[in-house]
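Journal club side-thread
Mid-discussion, someone asked how the predicted structure for our own chain would compare to the paper's figures. Pasting it here so we can look after the session.
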Amino acid sequence: MINLGLSAKSIHSILQRMDWVKIYKEELIIRLLGLEEVKNAFPERRFINLIKPQLDIIFPKEFSKKSKIMDIRESIRRWMIIANLKSFSLIKILDQIPKELSESAEICSKYSDIPIGPLDSETVRQMTHEKLKKWREGNIALFYTGVSITNLLGIFVSELFFTIEAMCRAICIGSCLNFAVKSILPDITIQHNEIFKTLKWLADNEKNSVNCKLCPINNECNINAYSKIAEIYELFYHMRAIKDYRAEFYFNTEFKEFLLNEYMIQSFKAACIIDNIMNKLFLNYLTSPLSLAAQKRRNIKDLIKIKKKL
């Protein structure tokens, strides 16, 4: 496994390599395997056992009312709801992609005999009305079907990252007292990098920050499993940044095939694992009505029922 980094420079350095798609393929396999290996290592009810008692000392009810600090439970529930709402987009896209691919194959077959793109004026003048019409319609149809699939992949990549980010925010609140305090205070904005660093700190045996040294529960934080969530978060950040800022997302065929054939399914598996970890940490304090994996299973069952009725 290589150090990807959370910066535009680190992404640029990888994209300069000829084998950059292969690098991301290998990192996905390694990081998902690492997450699967530690998924049972996270402490059950960590928030209610360790974090909540300390928050009750820091934010007594009387103080909270005077300063209008957001309710602790609501501040956590907000991120869990955001994760849940965004994860529904993932399921919808996973269900939609096969239909889009099927329609694309039909369009490609229908217009397989037409030239793609601009033609010289003489060639165009020699075309019959029917050929000219098919050339124009075909180019439009082929363009839009390609863009449609690419944009659908892009929505998945973005929604996946922000689903994972919302889950990781909740996980950090449920695991790190310092992060929980910052999340509850109304005027503090937490960036991507701080979520990543918090996950790494939770796994670090030698915490050097002042906050960590002063934390009354810091001896309970040395759980290496948190680093595996950080590794997945780091990879998904790269995918989202490539989608938003790099032309390679639109024009590199190998990368598009990687997203379609491997990334969508494997990254969704990672999201399901992280969702279960989040719910485990908040057990007996906040309970989701349905896990992400259960939502997917239910969605498939509902589709089968609908098809039977048609």
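Post-session note: Confidence is low (pLDDT under 50) at residues 302-310.
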